[in-house]
Amino acid sequence: MKFYQLERAAMRSLSVIFLITSLTLSACSGDYSSNGTQYPEARRINKGGTDAYDTSVDRGLFDGSGFNLFGGSSKDDRNGGVGSGIAVNSFLWRAALDTVSFMPLSSADPFGGVILTDWYSPPETPSERFKLNIFILDRQLRADGLRVAIFKETEKDGVWRTATTETKTTINIENRILERARELRLSAAAIQGNR
User: Which residues are bridge partners to 53 per DSSP?
Assistant: First the structure.
């Protein structure tokens, strides 16, 4: 490689570094008050010739709104759990987890609305085991926004074999989840009514 090619590549590298540095430093500039504190322009007020920051709309962790891990707000509870930061109805999600809390969980995806349990053998019938797949399909609290699939196996001679379950068993579990979701929604509405 010739010297002028090396010099040209070095100049290109320096130009890129200079450009990145310039952009980075220009992003750090802003509007500062007289004491060096930077305020968002929308919340900046002038008090007696000095800059101040309007804190009347600040909401903290202990102001009654609490802390919401998934980013929703308390008004979301009045809307049936819609907008709570997860892609499914939060009341159905919590109700489904409450209903199958006695079973070991294999997977729970709040964004996809899928709850998969691991095999569970009831103590009274150790030769039977069950597994549930719960799908929450909607952001609204509706009966058609929930699907449950039950898998059953029975043990015979040390081998687990697939067995059938009654349709009413699936319907009963879906109904129990829906009842619990309604309870959670009513309790959230009662809490909102007391504020």
Answer: 44
36 and 105 both lie in a single domain: no
104: CATH:
3.30.530
Axis-axis angle for helices 90-99, 167-193 (nearest 10): 120
Residue range of the domain that includes 181:
75-193
Beta strands in the chain (DSSP E): 44-47, 50-53, 105-109, 114-117, 128-136, 146-156, 159-163
Question: Residue 162 pairs with which residues in a beta bridge?
Answer: 153
**CB-based contact 86:70 (threshold 8 Å):** yes
pTM of this prediction?
Answer: 0.57
Residues 30 and 123 in one domain: no
pLDDT, mean of each 10-residue run, the chain (195 residues): 69 76 64 52 54 50 44 49 66 94 93 94 94 93 93 94 94 96 92 77
- Side-chain half-sphere CA neighbours of 148 within 13 A: 27
